Amino acid sequence: MSEELFEKAGIFAESLYKCTPKEHHPNLLQHVSLVFEYGVKLAKENDADETVVGLASILHDIGKVRGKDNHALSSAELSASFVKRLPLEMSQKKLIIKAIRSHDNEFSREDDEPEVKIVQSADALSRLFEPGWEQVNWSQIPREYIEKHYNKFDSKLTFEAARELAKERMAELKKHLE
Q1: CB within 8 A of 17, min separation 6: which ones?
Q2: Which residues constitute the domain of residue 9?
Q3: 3-class secondary structure for the chain?
Q4: CB atoms < 10 A from the CB of 99, how many?
C-alpha cells in the first residue's frame, strides 16, 4: 500500500513543484527525491514508520510554490487536505503534517518522534550529498555562507544515524571554517 500512496503523493507534489520558481530551489525535484531516499532508508533501518516518513519526505517542500519564507508552514497547510484523504490512521496523518511543519527547524523539539527527526535529518543529508558537491570550489565561497550552512545542517541532523552518515561531510565543511 505504501508504494501506491507514495505514487499518489508524488503526482500531487509534482504538480506544485513544477509551479515553484527555480530561484527558490533550482534542483527541487532532485532534492525531494534524495530526501525520500534517505528518509525511507533511515526509517527502515531504525524501525520508524516508513509510510509516514516517505509521504512527509515527498510533500515537505511543496510550500515553496508560495515562496521560500515560511515554506515549512505553507507545505503543511498545502498538504493537509491531501493527507486527510489518505487511508491511514489519524495518528499517522497528524505525524506526517508534524514532520512536514517541523522539517525546517523552527517548530522542531528535542522530544519529537523519530519520524519527525528522520525527515528533518534527511532534508539536511540531501543537501550535503547532492550531486556536484565534489566540484565545489570552497575557496570561492564566502566564509559566512559556509558557516551559515554548517550551522543549519548541524541543527537539522537530529537523528543519530543521519548524523553518523554526515560525519565526513560535516568535517569537510568545518575544515573550510578554520
Answers
A1: 28, 29, 32, 61, 62, 64, 65
A2: 2-175
A3: CHHHHHHHHHHHHHHHHCCCCHHHCCCHHHHHHHHHHHHHHHHHHCCCCHHHHHHHHHHCCHHHHHCCCCHHHHHHHHHHHHHHCCCCCHHHHHHHHHHHHHCCCCCCCCCCCHHHHHHHHHHHHHHHCCCCHHHCCHHHCCHHHHHHHHHHHHHHCCCHHHHHHHHHHHHHHHHCCC
A4: 30
pLDDT tens digit at each of 178 positions of the chain = 699 999 999 999 999 888 887 776 678 889 899 999 999 999 999 999 999 999 999 999 998 888 777 888 999 999 999 999 999 999 999 999 999 998 876 656 777 899 999 999 999 999 898 887 777 888 888 999 999 989 989 988 988 999 999 999 999 989 988 8
Q: How many domains does the chain have?
A: 1
- What's 169's domain CATH number? 1.10.3210
